[in-house]
Amino acid sequence: MAIKKTSKEEILKESIKLFKIQGYSNTSMANIADACGLIKGSIYHHFKSKDEIGIESLRYIHSYFDKEVFSIAYRTNLSDKEKIKLIVKKTDEYFLQSKGGCLLGNLALEVGTLNLEFKEEIKIYFTAWENAFTNIFQNKYPKAKARELSKEYVALIQGSIMMMNLYDSSEEYLKVGEKIISLI
Fold first, then answer.
1. How far apart are the C-alpha atoms of 60 and 20, rounded to whole Å?
2. Cα separation of 124 and 85, whole Å?
3. Domains and CATH numbers, the chain
4. Alpha-carbon distance 173 to 53, whole Å?
5. Which residue pairs from 44-52 have beta carbons closer than 8 angstroms and sit at least 24 positions apart in sequence?
6. Counting C-beta atoms within 10 Å of the first and last residue's C-beta, which end of the chain has fewer, N or C?
7. What is the rounded (10 degree) CA torsion for 97, 86, 125, 154?
8. Rounded mean pLDDT of the chain?
C-alpha cells in the first residue's frame, strides 16, 4: 500500500465511520489505516492508541453538535419555535445522511460500562443536548418539566435512530422531530 499524508481530522472521520458501522471492538488499527490509505504504523504518528482515537472521535462529534446544533438553542435572534425547528432540521440532516446511527449512542451501549473515560465523554455530550432542549422548553414549561421533557426527547431520538437503522426506515425517527416541534 502506498504511504500518503493524511491529517488527524481525516483519520477521525474514517474512524468514526468504521466505529459506527463495525462497532468499536470490531475495528482494529489496521482497519483504520486501510480506510485512510495508510500503513498501520502511520496512525501512531497522530494517535497513541485506538482508545485515544475513540475518545477523540467522541469529542469530534460533540464539538460538531455544539457548533452546528446545540448552539441554536442559545441564539437570541430566533423564536423558540424557530430554534426547535432548526435543531430538528440540523439533527435530521446529520442522522439521515449518517450510516450506522449515533456514534455516542452506539458506544454508550458497546463500551460505556467498560471504559469510564468514554462513559464520561458520552454523558457530557448527552447533557449538552438535554441542556439545549431545556433552554428552549423552560420558556414554556416550569424548569423541572422542561428538564424532564429534554431527557425524554433525547432518549426518544436515540431510540428512533436505533430503530431507523434496524428497520431501514426513517418514518418513526421523523415523527419524533415532529413531536418535539409540537411541544413549543
1. 14
2. 23
3. 50-182 (1.10.357.10)
4. 29
5. 46/8, 46/11, 47/8, 47/11, 51/115, 51/117
6. N
7. -90
8. 94
